[in-house]
Amino acid sequence: MDAALIAGIVLVLGIAVLLLLRVPIAIAVGFSAFVAVAAVIGMEKASFVAAQRMFTGINSFALLAIPFFILAGVLMNNGGIAGRLIDAAKVLVGRMPGSLAQTNVVANALFGSVSGAAVASAAAVGGVIGPRQAKEGYDKNFSAAVNIASAPSGMLIPPSNTLIVYSLVSSTSIATLFVAGYIPGILWALACMLIVFLYVRKRKELNNYQQVTLPVALLTLWRAVPSILMIVIVIGGILAGIFTPTESAVIAVVYCLILGFAYRAIKVRDLPRIVLDATVTTSIVMLLVGVSTIMAWVMAFSGIPAAISNGLLGLTDSPTIILILIMVILLIVGTFMDPTPAILIFVPIFLPIVTEFGVDPIHFGIMVTFNLCLGTITPPVGNVLFVGAKVAGLRAEPVIKALVPFFIALIAMLFVVAFVPQLSMWLPELLGLLAP
Amino acid sequence: GVSGNAQEGKTMVLSLNQSESHPSYIALTDFGERLKAATDGRWDIKVYPNETLGAQQEVIQLVSDGSVDMAIASGTQLENLNPEFATLNLPTVFKGIDHQISVLRDKGIVGPLFSSLEESKDLTVLGGLTQGDRNLYTVKGPIKEPKDLAGMKIRVQESELHIKMINAMGGAATPMSYGEVYTALQAGVLDGAENNEISYVTQKHNEVAKYVARTRHLVGLDYMLVNSTLLEEMTPEDRAILEAEWQKTVDEHVKLWNADTEKAIESAKASGTKFNDVDKAAFDKALAPVVESALTSDDARELYEKITEAAQ
Amino acid sequence: MNAIKSVLDFLLRWLCIALFAVLVLVVCWQVFTRQVLQDPATWTTTAAQYLFVWLALFGSAYVFADRGHIAVDFMVRLLKISHKRYTEAFVQFIILLFAVFVLIWGGLRGVDLTWTQQVSGLPVSVGAMYLALPISGVLTAFYALFHLVEALRGRGLPDEFDEEIREAI
Ligand code: NA
Ligand code: NA
Question: Per the structure, how many domains does chain A have?
């Protein structure tokens, strides 16, 4: 048997069996990859290859942005920023039919534009708006569904840790990916707003809104300015070439820290707990990155990506069908796997195939991220879904039913994003970011 | 390592940092094909391009441990293992590609250096592949002498020597990873960079920095590393074939390199790049103290003198 | 074993907090020297990267203490409770194997192979940086062993299966 076949069988069987037995994903991938390397080059050499790949996989300046954005996110959750963003969202869309539900969507998009964590957004925003919606007579399952469906938009709107991971495996520019994510991220939110609109159209009782006077509106928006200013500093700093993405992330940390102290929402003695929170999230992601590097090595060594690519290309030579196939495979993967490990595992396989058809790696990154983010709101593994339901104090099953229309709209939007490259590429092109 | 038992043959794994269109990849895949034919299929080479098996520093460790058989590594990487390699990385040490290649083939000059890592690291240096003359390129120009570079931020690799080199040439050395250079030139964060013509064009830096000053301050150099144990296990006949085919590879590579350089220059000119000659003596004079300060040991000075003599 | 675990948890927790804090300071210093002093520090990038690897590896060991690494648990949820102690023991056994073969053995071989190789710009060797692998490996192995013994005794098994989530599946 040739190396590719042996390594491939060990990887697929090993990971599948270990995952089903509830071995943590990182260990299932890492251990199977180690065994696969050992099968090809022997155990002693494999031990060093695995250790070295893990070590160097994490040893990257670009990845360093991730712990900082995570820390900034935790600081934000503790720093009273979510509340101000919700108030600002209310001023922006409060006069639309179904104002509270629309506010929820916009607040999640705003929260996403300062943080990269959909789960944090679902918890922080849903926790505040959910009870208010209940008071106004919204169906509880529907309002939880609105919150859950709109939270992942923040993983496309920069800053986004998921896009940083994609930039790492695809060797693309973080700045370009960030800019490319804006329109698809906003489209994600608009798809949710459309479903809310259709839902409340026949429910007159949900069309009430509170009249906000202009001074109050201005004051509310003014209170949100410091939070919005962070976007200007972080994204503006990257685009102007003042900071690298990593440096801009540490600036975000310092900025959130200052805001937290200024709002008197954070005390010095809270800091160790906040840092530890960020450490735990960071380490979970980084262990995944490290072990995926072992797997990427054994796959490259034994020629697996080329074999899969030949297999796919043997099925059909239509770029459209292959792209649809890849999207469907990733939608299935996403149902039981988080975006980060899924990107680390599948992008090295699929990216070479689609670039051969002329798909831009930046565009592919956006459609893959959009696709895999859908998985965060589906069972059986869906962080945003379960956290969103938990925050609302609801069982998951009825919430999932209420999510169905959102899900359909988002899948439709996924195919729009996949087949209209301009949605992702127009803004980076406009800003002259499409470097070779 | 374990030696003594002769090995019948295998497909050797060779790690390369360049892409499939690069002269190094083409020359090395041809190397594998000729080796296979000459050894009746006993020995073959599979080239893994694009750093898929790891960055150079890591792959050297893998070759040392025997998980990967061969690798192309830059001079800077070898300098980290044995400082004696530094002399071949110095600016102005080689007069040009031909001088460089003749030195790399002269066992009397580089023999001890190329076998210096066998005992400690199980690594043999089979030889070198040129990475061409390096020139300065800038957004504003032309640059003709060191004082024209005053205050200009010039990108360098993260290397002590290159920082000193650019500062000596009159610019302000700015270490930055190569992938960020395009946007940095565009945004005005950088005023220029330095590289060979092929990289200048393949990285599309010609779109944002239109002035190339032919400073030829450095001739780039990559080494071919092989796991020593594997070499020892080859039969003497097969090893002789390997060495002979390698020398042919070096020749083919120089030809490919020169042709690609010509093509790169033509396409840069077509897109508006202006090439200009410089006061080479003035730049060499500015670089002399950098060379001098790097020759810290007697061995290094002796090696440097042997190399300079070979140019005459 | 419980006492040892508490002490290790405590030390590891503060080590991670300290590493993270230093990491933030180092990158801040990098921005400061480049933007304000106009004289970029050359050591900060490398130092930050190695600090980050240490943080990730020790943080990862700390997460093993809590069994916090994400897993896919819908299959095990369908198994009967009585099997769960054995599946949990198996999980910890695999973590133990990974820690021993990759983190400890591979890590020590890495330390050995790179002990004399200098990190450019810093007064340390790559091998010294690689020490994070075997050390975090020993910690991870200890935690895996701890949870393995606990599982076989039928203690500390993962939370009873959430009714709501089973219905969702
Ligand atoms: Na975001
Ligand atoms: Na899912």
Answer: 2
